[in-house]
Amino acid sequence: MKKPLAVITGASSGIGAATAKAFSKAGYPTLLIARRLDIMESFKLEDSMCRKVDVRDREALIAAIREAEKEYGPTDMIFNNAGVARLAEIGTQDPSEWDEMIDVNTKGVMNGIYAVMSDMKARKGGTIVNMSSIAGRKIYEDHTVYCGTKFFVHAISESIRGYLSPHNVRVIVMSPGNIEAEVLNGITDPNTLEAYKKNIERIGGRISPDYVAKMILFAYEMPQNVIMQEVVVTPTKQDY
Ligand code: NDP
After folding, report:
1. What does the pLDDT look like over 168-223, one tens digit per residue?
2. How far is the CA of 189 from the centre of ligand 1 (A)?
């Protein structure tokens, strides 16, 4: 039997790319969403559609998902993963970086949820995986607004889980620590970048996004009446 559609946002690099590849390898048709279309297309995944969409654009995100559903059937899994980490000292950070994090990491996640929620509720099935972070569970001083956006993801996920669970729809929160990805490219504050790199060195390096992808696939493939509500994964030596 044909497997159902998995939608992954932020699929052009890091954790999103690894997850798209893992689901594709497991036989799921996939819709890959990000702005760098050429990179997603270079993965050459089977039964896959790639669309250049900014997750802040709700209408464009909905249109891409509807287009993929026409081809592959209803979305059974969405990974709302696209995010930016403009980590910095709060007192000197340009507020345009706050705006970007708030828009992508919170509204972008809500847009993905909005695009699939009613249909999953009506179909009485489906899985929504929202990308938070260890920084969505505790505060780091140079992560101020980033932490705020990830605490947001925890809060809305818990609330929407309550709303959707009677309809057999799962809402899972993914909370990783230091994972190999392009995340450091988004840090413009040199002191914060330096401290971040030093910490990574201290804990013996980051871990591969493939582990995160594996955990998402594992959680998704549990029977629908079983939910891993949250997955917290870090390098073993990451002590805070
Ligand atoms: P990457 O920078 O490698 O990936 C970020 C992805 O998000 C890219 O595919 C990027 O694609 C996409 N993206 C960013 N902005 C937008 C946008 N406006 N619209 C659509 N896509 C967008 O880093 P990660 O893999 O680390 O990041 C993925 C998620 O994981 C983020 O939410 C991040 O906060 C979270 N996270 C990461 C951790 C880590 O240590 N790596 C730890 C905890 C959480 P493109 O630029 O092509 O649009």
Report:
1. 999 999 999 999 999 889 999 999 999 999 999 999 999 999 999 999 999 999 99
2. 18
CA–CA separation, 69 and 155 (whole Å): 29
Consecutive H or E run containing 233? strand 230-233
From ligand 1's centre to the CA of 77, what distance in Å? 18
Mutate to test the pocket of ligand 1, among 53, 183, 234 (most ligand atoms within 8 A of CB): 183
The Cα 188–Cα 9 span in angstroms is: 23
Residue 112 identity (one-letter amino acid): G
Does residue 1 carry a pLDDT above 90?
no
Instruction: Report residue 71: phi and psi, to 5°.
Output: -85, -45
pTM over 0.85: yes
